[in-house]
Description:
- By secondary structure, the protein is an alpha/beta fold.
- The protein has helices at 12-25, 38-48, 64-70, 88-94, 106-121, 126-138, 188-194, 238-248, and strands spanning 3-8, 29-35, 52-55, 77-82, 98-101, 145-149, 154-158, 162-168, 171-176, 181-184, 201-205, 208-211, 215-219, 225-228, 233-235.
Amino acid sequence: MVFDAIIVDDEPKSREVLRALISRYCPNVKIVGLAANIVDAKNLISKFSPSLVFLDVEMPGGNGFRLLDEVDRKKFDIIFVTSYGHYAIPALRYSAIDYLLKPVEIEELREAVQRVVQKRNSLSDDGENYKVLSGNLKAPVSLQKIAIHGLNDVKFIPVAEIIRMEADNNYTFIITFSGDRYLASRTMKDFEEMLSGMRNFFRVHKTHLVNLNHIRKFVKGDSPYIVMSDGSNIEVSRRKKQELIERMGVNS
């Protein structure tokens, strides 16, 4: 499967570097056009009907989200390429839309393209993906969602319903208030970064990320652990103990 793709970025050097990396490391992607702004991008999309768009977030004259609002984006997949990690990256990750953070890493580029291939081979609704992405940027934290891709579907999980996450090598189990348990093909580090802007999520151990709102008991002692609202006992690493105490506002 070969994807016709365009690159949309206002920085000439960034466009050329990305094109060179794609040409060398992603043989299933053919770059058919480069755009410096959303007007040029709309023209390229109309002309080539690409299957994939590499899209910057912030550009003079309108950001990448404005472009998506003005075209029929159900016809192509998107990999965002951005320098803005302070607000865009968490929102993109919640909705499982692929992204790359500048400077682009080769392995991350390959993995992003592979995720697009997997999405194309699934029955996921790309239009629904974009609606979640757009909504996450505008919605309060309590209404934001994470998208979990299955073999034949995509499940959208409200962040507020997540009790905890448990690492399993390069996968992560997500446990919700309703008792559901989902397996996501992302690492714990990915989720820790995506939730970094939320004060109520905290990594208490190398294998556990928890929602502080769902802690029912904190047993300090020499082998500290917490009891979650689902009844699970989660070990707290010694180096995280004091920070957890401070975050929860309890006496040490």
